[in-house]
Amino acid sequence: MFVDRRPGRLLPLVGLLLAGVLVLAVLAVLAGCGGSGGQRSGSGGTAPSGQAGVFPATVTHEYGTTTVPAAPQRVVSLGYTDQDAILALGVVPVAIREFTGDKPSATWDWAQDRLQGRQPQVLPVGEVSTEAIAALRPDLIIGISAGLTQEQYDTYSAIAPTIAQPAGFVDYGTPWQDATRLTGQALGKPVEAEKLISDLEARFAQVKAANPALQGKSVAGVRPSTADNASFFVWGSQDLRARFFQALGMTVPQEFDQLAGSNFYATISTEEISKLDSVDSIVLITASDAETQAFQNLPGYSGLTPVRQGHAFTPTPEQSAAMSFSSVLSLPALLDTLPGDMNAKLA
């Protein structure tokens, strides 16, 4: 089942208000473990595979520059979707953050074979204590899709080199190209990362050309609110799902961006569902059939122009998750299915 459980900002980590005390505790844990270069594995202890890469590696992000001195042996995937780019580059993290679906090792089917039979520790969706991260003895923490604040970044950086989101995007809105590129730089594999990016961009270009009915069509990606029953979410153009449609030649109405402001989504009252009447297509991404039915039963939904025209789409749970991950591993399978289905109905 697909459930997008990211908060508007990463939930406060345990003890962040006592950051000074925790940093001392972290350093004590690391000293007791004898450094970060060992190969000891807990329930999810793993090491990277493939070539060692080019080091030292320098990565520039929203909070400055991080240097990774040597090939990391214990990578923590702290962001909600960072594991896909890490796995695509041949590295198996020691821990992966849960996002949605409760999949084994918090990894969806499109990336399962990249785990090489290993079972990384799963970090929770909500609070992750600094002590828990330190106990993993990481030598690299990747938090590109974690929505890190400056304070959180500083705290994690006291444990190990930490990669935050790049500047210029809303939280959780880093395009898959940038996420893959930063991950490749951190892992000392920039050339491999660029190859992944160019191959997938070429695939997007092929799919865009093969589905001309999508060109210039406006789209509203929506889902019921997770906060109440009186509103719903519409994704703005900086959301990863919206970026997927835009890459295929579709557009997101400017009104939704204005409503979203500095967030990746806008919250709209169900009484204003008529705001969806002007778009060419609606994509309803929900967590269950019951949720889909509830949204479709909203007063005014059946009378919306795109609904009456048959231009309302309900992706499968795996398609919904693939769009929400929008990673170098999740997008290829999505490109084989959803665009063609939408093109056939919008033609």
In short:
The protein has 14 helices and twelve strands. By secondary structure, the protein is an alpha/beta fold.
Q: Secondary-structure element sequence?
A: HEEEHEHEHEHEHHEEHHEEHHEHHH
The helix-and-strand class reads alpha/beta
CATH architecture tag of the largest domain: 3-Layer(aba) Sandwich
Could you say which overall geometry the principal axes of the C-alpha atoms support? globular
Mean pLDDT: 87
Overview of this protein structure:
- The protein is an alpha/beta fold.
- The protein folds into 2 domains: about 15-200, Rossmann fold (3-Layer(aba) Sandwich), CATH 3.40.50.1980; about 210-345, 3-Layer(aba) Sandwich (Rossmann fold), CATH 3.40.50.
- It is built from 14 helices and 12 strands.
- It has helices spanning about 20-35, 85-90, 110, 130-135, 150-155, 175-185, 190-210, 240-245, 255-260, 290-295, 305-310, 315-325, 330-335, 340-345, and strands at about 55-60, 65-70, 75, 95, 120-125, 140, 160-165, 220-225, 230-235, 265-270, 280-285, 310-315.
- Strands 5-4-3-6-7 form a 5-stranded parallel sheet. A 5-stranded mixed sheet has the order 10-9-8-11-12. The protein has a two-stranded antiparallel ribbon with strand order 1-2.
- It is globular, with a radius of gyration of 21 Å.
- The two termini are about 30 Å apart.
- Residues about 10-50 have low confidence and may be disordered.
Key traits:
2 domains; Rossmann fold; 347 residues; 14 helices; alpha/beta; five-stranded mixed sheet; 12 strands; five-stranded parallel sheet; 35% helix
